[in-house]
Amino acid sequence: MNNKMQPKGMSISIIFEAESANYGESVGNVASLKKISRNKGDQYTYISRQAIRYNIAEQLREEKAPVKAEGSGEKKVIQFKEDATIDKYPEVDFFGYLKTEKKSSGKKRSAKVRLSNAVSLETFKGDLDFLTNKGLADRLNENMNIAQAEIHKSYYTYTITADLDQIGIDEAYDMEIENEEKVRRVNKLLDTIAFLHRDIRGRREDLKPLFIIGGIYDVKNPVFQNVLDIKNNRLLVDQIKGVMFDNIKEDTYSGVVNGKFENTNEIKDKLNSLSMPEFFSVLKGKVKEYYEGN
């Protein structure tokens, strides 16, 4: 097993636009969006990293790793089977596993592809949608049921980081896949991110990037995670440039959907932004270059 691969991390931060894409527990007959509070109590909705991971795993179009239920009653745990190994299932290669075994510490693999929550860039104002089943109730001449759901349309941002030198390698099984397969898997992950969507409550929400920035770096830091922001439909470009250290600047690429933001020309001029297809093509080429050079 080759463990001498040069340590490299891929980090990409994304802005997309979506509406009411992740609900938590209901309060009475009101479906509540997942939210966090900041500043002086301002509320921001978010899509959990678990939800995004689920959508990525579903849309990778790779065979799903087999699972099993261990224990019984409240102690029953669903986990991956022993033969769910990285050589056969990209899902466990990317996102890791925990396999418990009696009379041993079991086997564990940390995630090599990590996600942040997707947090809204616009505050939640308390908007509600009024829901009924009038269409069905009218068929029986019955009173309709009434419910409400919080709604919020906003830009969201999240970050994906990947330990490229650890993908395709599993010391617990003394296993490593070929570099050609590593390229295929990582680039398929990028293809999935480029067209990611989420089905929720009869809607299909488009999570594909409207702005994206990142690259392959010697440091494994989510470089742009805390600097992407939008005010009055303008991307705060100077905030992004504020973390452009010399050791990452030449390896950083960005992409933008033309005309989506008020300052698209500024984004292109100051960040040398490409079109979205060009960005993914360049990054996929860099992934191939990295693995072929090791």
- Number of DSSP E strands: 21
**What average pLDDT do the residues reach?**
94
Distance between the termini: 13 Å
Structural class: alpha+beta
Computed Rg: 22 Å
What does this 3D model show about the protein?
The protein is of the alpha+beta class and 294 residues long. It is built from eight helices and 21 strands. The strands form seven sheets. Strands 1, 3, 4, 9, 10, 13, 18 and 21 form an eight-stranded antiparallel beta sheet that branches. Strands 2-12-11 form a three-stranded mixed beta sheet, with no helix packed on it. Helix 4 (179-194) runs antiparallel to helix 8 (276-292).
List keywords for this structure.
single chain, 294 residues, alpha+beta, 8-stranded antiparallel β-sheet, 3-stranded mixed β-sheet, 8 helices, 31% strand, globular
Please render the helix and strand layout as text.
Layout: E1 9-19, E2 30-31, E3 35-38, E4 42-47, H1 49-59, E5 67-70, E6 77-80, H2 90-95, E7 97-99, E8 107-109, E9 113-115, E10 118-120, E11 128-132, H3 134-140, E12 146-150, E13 153-163, E14 169-170, E15 175-176, H4 179-194, E16 197-200, E17 203-206, E18 211-217, E19 230-231, E20 234-235, H5 237-241, H6 246-249, E21 252-256, H7 264-271, H8 276-292
Parallel strand pairs: 2-12
Antiparallel strand pairs: 1-13, 1-18, 3-4, 4-10, 5-6, 7-8, 9-13, 10-13, 11-12, 14-15, 16-17, 18-21, 19-20
Helix pairs in contact: 4-8
